Fold each of these.
Amino acid sequence: MVEYGELPSDPIEHATDLIEEKLRLLKPNHLVYEDYRVYSWRSAAHSWSALHTPQLIGSIRTLCRQKGVLTTHHMAHEAKTFVTDDKLREWHMYKSGQKHARDALRHGLFYLLFTHKKRTNI
């Protein structure tokens, strides 16, 4: 795992530029992100929403495709159920005040611990 953290994501155009710059600097061969779904019980809250998060995910997927970077996504519950805050603290990886950075780390660790093995038959 190369890096995790938080970047400003609004407006989408600026976020896309920042993500593209990170991809250029870090040259990853694989990127893991948290997927997004509109759940039926939250559908009213999304009425007339610009759906910022799905737009951002679309930018990430497009940039990665253009640059030949493989992607893997997990739903929030998959990583958060196993890679808890307590485990991050125990592993000395907890970043206070950076909820989204911790979530990114959870997904990266979950990928390394479980998904990567399935993909590579290790």
Amino acid sequence: MTTVSLTVNGRAEVVDTDGSETLLEALRRDLLLTSVREACGIGVCGSCTVLLDGKPVSSCLFLAALADGRSVETVESLAPDGGLHPIQQAFVDHTAFQCSFCTPGFLLATKALLEENPRPSPDEVRHYLAGNLCRCGSYTQIEAAVLDAAERLGG
């Protein structure tokens, strides 16, 4: 077993891993962060997206041991006070979800996009979020929500 020290949603955390455990598994099992979801298990759907040092990664492919000393954000970090973050509110206002299974990954990818590019074009939104799949087909609403969130955040 390997002990991994990391910062998750602004809090210092320690998890023990056998070396083959993914970050997704550690976040869900050890830290009970169930917004991180596995759908495909091979890094192509985006449901397991987390921000690792501010960059989106597929946590189903990333070994937990490699997160030692790093910062991880899950969707729980967006609104720690219980309210909605402007990105979340934009998704609600544009009904940018149906089943919501993919929504945490889209929210975190949107956060990363808007931190890199506060004023993305529709084409840039589509390109950046191409690694996140919505089985319900809410893409036009998601795009509208991302562009609205950019405005809400002053982009």
Amino acid sequence: MSSRVVDRQALIRFLEQFDHFCGRPGSVFLVGETSQLLEGWRRWASFIELTLEADDALADGPAYRQALELAQSELDLPVVVESPAEVIPLPDGWEARARPAHLSTQWLRVFHFDPYSVSFRFIARGDEPDYHLVLQYLSHGWVSVEAMDDLLESVLPRFTAETIAQDPAEFRRRYKGLLQMWHTMRPGATRRES
């Protein structure tokens, strides 16, 4: 993996190159810092993080991966392909909550992965930079505390059965810590958020 950091211009060039090499319809879902970089909420990201979905079962095939690798190596950028589903169970309806990225490409449709699923994934990891990523989603209105509370009730019972060593009690503790940070950022926050 390259040691270069990625700015917005490099991310767009990468997506254009991937589209060019791919030459077939498919969807790219940007995750976490990568979404926030494309939206202009941050100036750089450590790497490009995305997950793929091809229209013709190509996502697991060599042609789709080869197009990704060609774009990555041509631009010498660090790229990680990982779905939040590999870390946490996804809340129902995640597909409908994916947000269009409004990036014009010939073949690929570019989306931001469901911000609620991404938020839960980063809360589960529980590092301070992960919390700040979720706080950005909250600040920009991509997620709300109320909706996270509702979705969390359906997701938490599935944590131990569907994920690797994800303790629901530990997740609740981390989530409460995130809400305390959010409340501190917003002095007029409602009682439900604390």
Amino acid sequence: MKLDRPKDWYERRIALEGDLEVGAGVPPGYQAQAVAAPAAKPVETRIAFGTFVELWRRSRGWDAVKLAEEAGVSPEEVLEIERYPQSEPEPSAVYKLAQVFKVPAKILLELAGLVAPRTPNLRQAAVRFAARSESVAALNDRERAALEAFVAAITETAGTHE
């Protein structure tokens, strides 16, 4: 498909949209073409998302039922997010968890693989975070530091995209 506008025109328009989730559509007079489905889901970031949910919950001394009650989701959803990165969580559950965690929903949606990656270096930070965390009954100092650093990175990253 040949576009009749220069590339910089489109780049300026994209910059005006900021961080909004916007569909581009098709220029007038052109036939829409099917777009290939995205490749495999980002399991690496879902592992970090599940680890984040579990460590956040454990750092408060909560079980999955307590977190589910606070977020208004089912305990099964919480456990599925924590334990099964191959499973795609419901967007509404991710949004509700973000509210409980007081972190930006758009970052958690990206970690959960529900929106296209838009945050540079988030994948690397997520993988590093998940790799530094161990599943034990109580958070150790390293896990607590990793959790706090990751929350700070999420919050800082969101601030640059608003």
